[in-house]
Amino acid sequence: MKRQIFAPEHDAFRATVRSFLDREVLPYYDQWEKDGIVSRDVWRAAGKQGLLGFAVPEEYGGGGTPDFRYSAVLAEEFTRAGAPGLALGLHNDIIGPYLTSLATDEQKRRWLPGFCDGTLITAIAMTEPGAGSDLQGIRTHAEDRGDHWVLNGSKTFISNGILADLVVVVAKTTPDGGAHGLSLLVVERGMDGFERGRNLDKIGQKAQDTAELFFHDVRVPKENLLGEFNGAFVHLMTNLAQERLSIAVSAIAAAEHLLEITTEYVKEREAFGRPLATKQHIRFEIAEMATECAVTRAFLDRCIEDHANGTLDAVHASMAKWWATELQKRVTDRCLQLHGGYGYMTEYPIARAFTDGRIQTIYGGTTEIMKEIIGRSLLG
Ligand SMILES: Cc1cc2nc3c(=O)[nH]c(=O)nc-3n(C[C@H](O)[C@H](O)[C@H](O)COP(=O)(O)OP(=O)(O)OC[C@H]3O[C@@H](n4cnc5c(N)ncnc54)[C@H](O)[C@@H]3O)c2cc1C
After folding, report:
1. Tens digits of residue pLDDT in 266-297
2. How far is the CA of 360 from the centre of ligand 1 (A)?
3. I need a labelling partner for 228 at 20 to 30 A (CA). Which of 61, 81, 257, 262 fits?
4. CATH of the domain at 296
């Protein structure tokens, strides 16, 4: 089915992203995988190319187009290229909205120009060693000392954790406040007592730096409170829908792409004197996956359109997230099986997609938590 959500300007943007990937990302990607981190140069190149902050107002150096379809194009192309390590989506779609919607004018002037030109790389730190799905278990806390906060605690699994110059930290600011005792504090590179731990050794997405962060008596000025005091929970709930949609967008793009390359593979690979594609089992596998992808694509494109129009709710974003990422997991596994032993070799894109993609049902809210959100909306 022909997709109907994009206009010629989105197609032009897609061509720009593809040429950026060919020029600035793919030639270096294997090295970044070995290094466990991408270069800072590629962030600056992304800024120059207009791939950062396209939703940020032009007066701060952004693109001034809060149209989520540009984000969708970026996510789709990075997924097809097999380059999830350069986390532009995290920066643009997950952290960007906190800065554009919650920052004061003074904070915007301080942070947004660097956000857009690639000199200020961002991260968001919610998860702790003892609190992931259940954010009410957060122990990182900040004490009010008049003109500043004193922040103590630790976070883990933080994407861009090593590269980040600005980290939005979820911290307890009212000890017995439960979900309504949390605030967002912005910690900046170089603040005394802010330390990075290990760049964590993951099974996939090796070029993406994922790290532990430690805060020992970090003095965070009051000017670095983002949004409302004790308002973090509401801010997170507002912004998590876009995070979930972004992950779903990359999930369906991955499933479609892997199905495409596997379809080509089974046409060429022969067994028992004939191409694999002539066997009924293989044909049914491809037919089933193509059907599941097509049905999912229709729902996802509707979600993208709704979000571009400001009408996507948290429940439908959760449906998109768990469904598309579980589909990605199933399709990746079946496509790897159809590659036989070659599917297990890292030189084949399907092998890396298998390990890179496995995280998708976990971060941004697990499949189980997505179902909880949907169930709660239906059953109370
Ligand atoms: C590569 C990577 C990058 C990440 N990036 C970031 C980041 O940038 N910032 C950040 O803050 N975090 C990040 N995370 C953390 C991620 O969001 C959490 O790992 C995730 O939310 C799950 O939390 P957890 O690991 O503590 O698992 P747990 O919460 O301990 O869950 C373990 C299992 O129990 C299930 N479970 C939990 N509660 C329930 C329930 N009520 N009902 C049924 N099942 C339940 C879960 O679904 C899961 O299957 C990242 C993680 C990884 C691995």
Report:
1. 999 999 999 999 999 999 999 999 999 999 99
2. 11
3. 61
4. 1.20.140.10
CA of 240 to the centre of ligand 1 (A): 14
32: left (phi over 0), alpha (psi -120 to 50) or beta: alpha
> How far is the centre of ligand 1, averaged over its atoms, from the C-alpha of 356 (Å)?
16
Same domain? For 273 and 337 the reply is yes
Q: For residue 1, tell me if it sits in a domain.
A: no
What is the three-state SS of 122-182?
A: EEEECCECCECCCHHHCCCEEEECCCEEEEEEEEEEEECCCCCCEEEEEEECCCCCHHHHE
Encode pLDDT of 342-368 as tens digits: 999 999 999 999 999 999 999 999 999
Q: Which atom of ligand 1 is nearest to the CA of 161?
A: 8
Q: Is residue 249 part of a domain?
A: yes
Residue type, 250: S
Q: What is the CATH number of the domain that holds 44?
A: 1.10.540.10
The domain tally of the chain equals 3
135 lines ligand 1 (CB under 6 A): no
Range of the domain at 99: 8-120
Does the CB atom of residue 110 touch ligand 1 within 6 A?
Answer: no
Q: Is 371 in the pocket of ligand 1 (CB under 6 A)?
A: no
